[in-house]
Structure formats: structure tokens, C-alpha cells
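2024-03-11 09:14:02 DEBUG pipeline.ingest accepted 1 chain
2024-03-11 09:14:02 DEBUG pipeline.ingest length=133
2024-03-11 09:14:03 DEBUG pipeline.predict start
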Amino acid sequence: MKSGLTVAYWALLIAALLPIFCAGLAKWGTFGKPRKEGGYDNHNPRAWLARQTDWRARANAAQANTFEALPFFFAAVIIAHQSSAYQMRLDVMAFLWVFLRVLYVLMYVADQATARSLVWVLALVLNIAILFA
């Protein structure tokens, strides 16, 4: 039996960190500002995020959507591993899924709604393919 993590398992770790990246992006540049001037409010972070607009609000929405996508991706990768999927194919598909999700986040923040939705669909189809790998 092989030891260590496969590329697909590393993709799970990267995917798990992606929502944290989105949260940091939403808060970017606000930590040094006083709360009275719109700076990040660590005492009431959800209310602060709810008041954000434009790209900060979209980064927060990308965070929520990324969290929503994780369970299916995790399950698909684990099931594929348990089903003895061809490892190289699984690794490539998992890496590509992470790439698509990063692209999705960037398009969300940049307000590229149509392209973002297309990337979301591609990632979903790829996730289904991973499940049946």
C-alpha cells in the first residue's frame, strides 16, 4: 500500500482552505481601520460582513458557496479512492476542480456573473465525474 497523500487528497486540503481565503479577501484592507470608519469588526463579524457591498459582499458570497460545494467534492474524492479509481485520472480531475473553484471565486469577486455560472456548472459536472471515476 502507498503511503502519503495523493494529489487528490492534497486537493481536498486546498479546497478546505479556499473559503478561508474568500473570507480574508472580503476583509482585505479593513483590519487597520477603526470600526467607526468601516473597519473590520471582530466583535460582530457576521453583521459587519452583512453590511458590505460590491466586491466585498461578493467575496463573502463566494465563501458561502465554496463551503456549500465542499461536502460533495470531499465525498466524491473519498468514494473514488475507496472504489480504486485510476489514480492519475482522479488526481487530474481533483486538481482541475480546485482550479475551477479558484476561477469561480475570482469571477464572483470581479462580478463576471455569466462566466462564473458557467464555471460553476463545469465544476459540478467534473465533481460528478470524480464520483463515478
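2024-03-11 09:14:41 DEBUG pipeline.report The CA atoms of residues 59 and 98 lie 17 Å apart.
2024-03-11 09:14:41 DEBUG pipeline.predict end
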